[in-house]
Amino acid sequence: MKNLITFSIITVTYNAQNELQKTINSIQEQNYKFFSHIIKDGFSKDLTNKIDFTKYKNTEFHISSDKGVYDAMNQAFKFAQNEYIIFLNAGDVFFSKNSLKILAENIKQNPNFNLYSGGTVQININKEKIERIIGIGKLYKYLPLAQLPHPSLVIKKSILSRLKKPFDSKLKIASDYKQQLILRKQKLWKTFYLNQIISIMPIGGISTLNNKSVLNGYKETFFLSLKIYKFLAPYILFIKIILNFYSKAKVFIFKNLMIKFENFL
Fold this sequence. Notes:
Layout: E1 7-13, H1 17-28, E2 35-41, E3 59-63, H2 69-77, E4 84-87, E5 93-94, H3 99-109, E6 115-124, E7 129-134, H4 138-142, E8 153-156, H5 157-160, H6 175-185, E9 191-202, H7 211-229, H8 233-253
Parallel strand pairs: 1-2, 1-4, 2-3, 6-9
Antiparallel strand pairs: 4-8, 5-9, 6-7, 6-8
Helix pairs in contact: 6-7, 7-8
């Protein structure tokens, strides 16, 4: 069909069977069905390979060794056939059954952009608490070089393919931000901002595991931005810290937001 918006949703996983199942269910429940779901596993030692992936529509499962999450993302990207790419890792879910439909409608109405960005709700499952609302608000839209949440960021494959690799696999935490900075540096950053929540991301990933990992993320961000933007590195680190507080403050604005925490147990 001409002008049909099709997505490649990439999920990388390792020893996260239960989290992966939640992500699969969220994608399968989408009302918009023009997608392929690419799952890349790094030889998990749990029961991930016992999941019957054949019963899920538009889903493919790949297993291979990798050097970490960003190397796994690079490998999975090679299997993507559709033009619009979303990285939704194991445990991340779409906010509603209409999330893909909302994205598709916005892309169709605004076709001349390279990226489309919505909001991500970061939650603490154990405390049944919303920690942050990321990607929503004027600071994300207007603050130069602001980092956007990758679970709610759609990137054209034709744009991402212009990078040597989508992600720097040598980094442990901030490679998604490095990708966004490089796209800006290469003048490929033409982003449409949706003022809508697209995804939910439980706290506990490598960048949010504990205070030490958060500090390591800041450190990694500073040194990678130093290489790309040189004297702007302190500013980039500063806005990352500012946006951390800004996204926490946004929780009070979205205080009536309902999250079914029982779905994540």
